Amino acid sequence: MGDVTSVGTPKAGYFAEGQAAVVAERISATLRAERGTGEYDGRGVCFLQVGEDQVALVDVTFLPGTRPTGGLEGPSPDYLRYKVEFGTSRVARWFGTSQ
Do 46 and 12 meet the contact criterion of CB atoms below 8 Å apart? Predict the structure, then answer.
């Protein structure tokens, strides 16, 4: 689930996670004999480490048939903290552990 192989997005975990949430919602709805309404929004973020404890945030949306849209924020030390928190929360949620 959520391998993003057919949607034209970068093969990054953030995108796969977003797609997997839609797949899970639709499977759950099917098991309840309901119609799933989730749609993959193509949105993702990437962290761009620029040195000196500075990180920029790339926020982008990839939708079929359109050019990617988004922007770049930072760099700043705040985004470095966000990057660390982001990674730690994913490790904890996916594997039940912390880094």
Answer: yes
Residue 39 belongs to what H/E stretch? none
Q: Write out the two tokens for 48.
A: 């761009």
Where in the chain are the domains?
A: 13-95
How distant, in Å, are the alpha carbons of 19, 89, 92 from that of 83? 21, 10, 14
**pTM beyond 0.70:** no
- End-to-end Cα spacing for the chain: 24
Alpha-carbon 19 to chain mean position: 8
Nearest-angstrom CA–CA distance, 52 and 83? 15
Closest Cα to residue 56, out of 66, 47, 64? 47
> What is the tens place of the pLDDT at every residue in 40-83?
888 888 888 998 899 999 999 888 788 889 999 989 999 999 99
